[in-house]
Structures
1.
Amino acid sequence: MNSTHTASIIYHHGDSPTMHSAVAIVLFLAVVQVRTDPPTGCVYIENVAYRRFLFPGNYHNLYNRNVNYDNWERLSKSSKNWSLESFEKAFLIHSTEIELAPMYLYAQKSLQLDKDRGQVFTSAMFYNPRSLQWKIDKLRNGYYTIRNEESKEYLYAAERKYDVSYGCQQDGNNQSAIYCWTIGTVCTWKGKTSPELGFEFQWAITSC
């Protein structure tokens, strides 16, 4: 939703039309657009707390991939690109990585990381369409919250103690040294207490 502010130019005796043209241009360029919906199409989804990006991780099983967050530099272009589609009053989010079929972000109600944290996957197979629908609301600070339409649980970047191992490689300066790293885990909040929607629950959504 965009709102546009316009201004009228009033000429006074002795004023320069050139001056008024310049003022009009400045006012036109200063138009404020207030956008409540996130951009659609190709987007990056960055967690505000950790400044790391959402991406589909390793396969959890034959049909589902885990969802994680990691540094921009370690992610391939295709892995950090998502497609955001408007659907009725919600949004669908799917990975742009090459798969046999689009793999949509969804919340799995039957699987939990623990009693407070639900698991999130991407998958091309699902049984409840509402599990892959997300309500995205813009906060006053310009960031977004993402809430699953079925579970009513918010997407969030779990604390670093839930990180998982992801890969290892040789140190470029020391071939005998092996460097390994971990990636963050993305969940939905299932806790009995309502989340305060801190930065772990806030996401920057920007066009690719």
2.
Amino acid sequence: MSDSISSSFTQGYEEFWRKSQEFIDSAIAASTVVLDTNAILNLYRMKPSARAEYFQVLQKIESRIWIPRQVADEFHRNRLSAVDSHANSLKSKSDKVSESAESLRFALRDFFKLHSLADGKSSGYLESLNESVSRIVNSVKREVEEYDLKPSDLLSGDPILERLALLFEGKVGSGVPMSERKAAMDEALRRGAEGVPPGYKDVKERGEKGVGDYFIWREMIDHAKLTERDILFVSTDLKDDWVRKQCGFSIGPLPELVEEMRISAGVQYHHLPLAIFLSRAAVALKVPVSQDTINQVKDGSISSETRDLVNEVREWQKVLGSTEQNLRAAQQQVGFLHHMVMNADREASAARHSVNNAEKSDADMLNQLREFSAAEEKLRRRVAELEEAKDLLADIEREHAIVRHRYKVAHDGLMAMEHEGAIQRLE
């Protein structure tokens, strides 16, 4: 560090804060863009409209795209399984939504039977809720139906692969030479053991099977030496051995990686999540990228385990909201019927008092007895309705307690992952 830099409070620390949008736009417009495996596989997880916009972005940077051989290897090994996994996940989530919706409908029907005893407006109220639930279910079904890929259809003819082959022709690295692979493997294991980024977490967990990230990094450095052009790595991998995080927020690439790229190849290095890349590409490259497309790839920026947990929390949150509504309505109904029982009891007491104080010869004795009998019958009905409402309230309270517990378990698990920096917050 020179004297001029050492006297500055900020110069030389640029890697410790998030880059400006102008810097990111410039990197997108001029750097070699290296795509990670999942950044490519996301094309198979998108709806056709989003996929078309993603391809437009790739076509704009076609001359500057570069794919490490390790990425190509991983892509071809996982292409069909990525489609199968995504299709199964969509169906599973759709089935869960339908099951939850049916449970809510059942609860609403039960509540309707009770609530209709109190007033005639509940039918319209519950009908509107049921319509809202139906709209949600139908919307989810449409999302599933709009996904147009099946592994069996891609075995012999894959239009996505055909377009990628044209885009990436002549832009794929040759990989680490066979004569150097043993030394590269040893270096990857050494770095993993010593916690040197990138990819040391995978190495520690999987040994030799976890060296893929280092091989990608090694290829990027070698390519940057040849081209002498800055590197922009677009990836969905936001683990701590690639990205600097603070308070759960991604700041940018690890300073160690920026420094290693600068020393080894003499170029700048930057790392962007796919969603932010597409968002800023719309500006930097002047291509249309909708918010729906960006939203579809945001989930790709977190691990599948975290993504499933996020979805689980969201689902339980919706169910919890529904049970809380049912609980409040049932509590209000119990309160209302308790008030009606009190009124009926007063009416019965007044009728009983009239009968007890009536003269034997009183000509109205028969009418008073009839009134007393009607008041007693009304009281019995109200008491029965109140007991039924209390039973329903107890059932809803038990259901609410179960849902609240399941939501808390999922939420606490998500918070634990967030604390470990496993979640990328996209702004």
